[in-house]
Hints:
CATH architecture of the largest domain: Sandwich
Strand content: 35-45%
Shape: elongated
Amino acid sequence: MHMKKIFKSFMALMSVVLLMASCDNASPVKSDYDPVFDESQKGYTFAASSQGATYGVGYEDSIYSVLVFRNYTEGEETVALQFGGDAQYFELPESVTFQDGQDVTSFDINVQGMPAGSSFSIVAALDGPAMTYCHFDSAALVAKFRKDSLDCIANSDAKTAAALGGLIASITAQDTIYLTGETQTQIDFEVEFTWVSKGIVLFVSNWEGAQGEVEIQQALEYSDAAGNHYMRLNSPYYHVAPDYCSAAGKHAYFYLDKDYNAGNDLVPAGIQMVEDAYGWYWHPNYVGVYNQFLNQGNVYLISVLWYQFSSGSLYSPTNEMWQWEEEHYNAAKADPNWIFE
């Protein structure tokens, strides 16, 4: 087995250890599901949770905690930390400390003043060796793990259920997972825009053969030299075709010019995940052939290809349309600072 694949297995496992701790109906003992650390060479590793965070605008001194593990518990120990990347918005510690008896600890990153719509990455490194061979003896624990995790899945959110279900399948397929630790990790942070309502549209999907009312929103802090507005339809397919979009949060993004008109240069290139299994696909080379974005007054049409996530296939374009409530459209055009309430 390739070491990269093995390490990913460990990271998935550590994620589920954290997820299991949050389940109300199952309270597993920590040693039941943790890897059994081999102390033949002492060392450290980051946990899968050190992947970064997304913050809303208006936070103050947001704290992000990063977990660190060692494969022994004896003695108090301080490990030096090193950081790389763009650290201008981060207050970073110089070290992390394990207390005597601990095999897991954490350090905090203080995130300060990141601008709305920005994203930054830092690389954290532990000044010490990686733990070498840890293992999780799944053969001995799989029966208990399956029972507790299936109980947990029944009362958990979709992300937890998916993670647990994937791990159940992986540990059932093999008795033991051997791995090494990782003493360096990239941590990504981003700050979202504040999205304000610009009223209601009647959204018509030719892809799904469905229609319904959807909120149109604008990024409050966004600005560019041309005066364009950064916009989105709020979870359009969740509202008009919930069988194909099971949860809110899959938005459709685009720009409008200073007068709220569409244009072929105002759609983000690439894939937008607007449904569970399919997404909008826009490519500048396809403009005028498969992709177009235009409007006549308060009626908008966007022609998009459809990308299937499971296969990577593209499907024929459809015209997705919406009619912005005329009163709301006129109010937005008259005053870009107008907010629908």
